[in-house]
Amino acid sequence: MPQTAPMPSVSRFRLVGAMGIGQILAWSSTYYLPAVLASPITQATGWSITRVVMGLSLGLLVAGACSPRVGRMIDRHGGRSTLAASSILMALGLALMGAAQHLPVYYLAWTIIGLAMAAGLYDAAFATLGSLLGSAARSSISGLTLLGGFASTLGWPLLAYLEHQLGWRDACFVLAGAHLAVGLPIYLLFVPKAPTAPAPASSRTQANAEAGQPLAYRQLFLLLALLLTLQSLVASTVSVHLLDMLKLLGMATASALAIGMIMGPAQVAGRIAEFTWGQGLHPTWATRLGVLLCLVGILLLVPAQAWLAFVAIALYGAGNGILTITRGTLPLVLFGPTGYGARMGLLARPMLVAQAAGPIGAAMILDAFSAEALLMVLASLALAGLLASSRLPTREAGP
Questions:
Q1: Residue 321: closest CA among 292, 290, 342
Q2: Does 194 score more than 90 pLDDT?
Q3: Exposed e or buried b per residue across 221-232, where buried means at least 16 C-beta atoms within 10 angstroms of its C-beta
Q4: Is-contact 97 106, C-beta < 8 A?
Q5: Fold (topology level) of 215-389
Q6: Which is nearest to 311 in space by CA: 296, 292, 323, 324?
Q7: Domains of the chain, residue spans
Q8: Can 10-195 and 215-389 be said to share one CATH topology?
Q9: Taking the model in full, what pTM does it have?
Q10: Helix, strand, coil: what percent of the chain each, to 5?
Q11: Which of 137, 205, 219, 239 is most buried per CB count within 10 Å?
Q12: Tens of pLDDT along 79-109?
């Protein structure tokens, strides 16, 4: 990665603000879309809810397959064109989804959206900031995730309003238009071109370079990949099955909904704490704190007491909010800015696969056993993540 010139604070603030708007739009119209539109799609088409939600899993698998290549592209050419392409792909995928009359066309739409997710969600955005700001990108990554945390808070009500007023198909068309009218201009106008990078090495040369890294470097990378993948399994399962688990634990629907509503504000609070007070803390320590809060929150759900569940989800949400930031800052601090985009892409692949597979495996556990059994599995995964985080260094350790 070429050397980056310092960016004025005003320009950096404008960059993060613009990319934050892009992230809100991107997450709202991809990852969070089935939570609102899955039921209307099922009612209108006759497709089962499982087949409809499987579209998101397909998109996540496609994103995981493409993320390493996207990361390398950002390292070589910067993220401006990649993020702009993601807006075009999201518009195309959403327009095709709105027009889909048959399930294969619906899955094709999610395949295109998966390509867009690889090029336009957090990992690509983090890599873009790394290419522009180098080692100084940490605070900007924190600010970006802070803004992106409002995606569900703003996106779900907007999606519900559009679906109620226009129907799910026209809602998809409106979202497609928003990517072309809002997302695309934002990236083209506010994301600067990255400094010219050296000529890219061949795939064989890159593979040999990776294989030639010191053993300690490769072990550290694998340890970090394991930690982030475990956390992705936990986070995706909780986000999809929280309400079901609370109901199976014996809580009333109204109580379960109220408890679930704590998640969003708690995540934002965790991100604000990391953004304001955690900048002097090494990301390894912030990661350990985040995983510990998630573990304690999961365990506090086991007694199945409503008042305790409020505390549990507040702790879990705060921890997950912190981990959303350290997912981007930890690789930057541990390995440095050189090759940051490619590294983020490689880390994203198992994480996205975990996000696709986790909720499906969790549903099987709920059907075959109980909510308590699923909570114990989640606690075990979080504990394994905590043990992995304890092996991470608390100093910069680039190769």
A1: 290
A2: no
A3: beebbbbbbbbb
A4: yes
A5: Growth Hormone; Chain: A; (1.20.1250)
A6: 296
A7: 10-195, 215-389
A8: yes
A9: 0.82
A10: 85, 0, 15
A11: 137
A12: 899 999 999 999 999 999 999 999 999 999 9
